[in-house]
Amino acid sequence: MLVKYLGVFLVGGIFCVIAQIILDKTKLTPAHVLVGYVTLGVILGALGIYEYIVKFGNAGATIPLPGFGYALAKGVIKEVKETGLLGVFTGGIKGTAGGITAAIVFGYLMATIFKARTKN
């Protein structure tokens, strides 16, 4: 069990460290890193490489942004096998619908519980 937690911590931590280095050493914005990480997850997922990262890192690999890209790629691949070319358009949505729905529901819940304010 400890080894599993260590894998989650290492993989998630490595993603965070890489993103922070990119933000500190380049002029890229957090939005650039977000898009780059999701795209990286799609590419590595489509090539079958990200599956090995998920096997080692579990939630440390599936929860961060590359994990979202991986879920998109995995959903598209599955849907293309089942429905053909139409799966290119529907697979990503089906593959990530649960996570997106949870983010919306919990985001709404937090917005109703806590009072939003601007930073000074």
UniProtKB/TrEMBL annotation:
What's the domain of life for this entry? Bacteria
InterPro entries membership: Spore_V_AE, SpoVA
List the protein's name: Stage V sporulation protein AE
User: What species does this protein belong to?
Assistant: Clostridium collagenovorans DSM 3089
**Keywords for this protein:** Membrane, Transmembrane, Transmembrane helix
Q: Which Pfam family name is an example for this entry?
A: SpoVAC_SpoVAEB
Q: Which residues cross the membrane?
A: 6-23, 35-53, 95-114
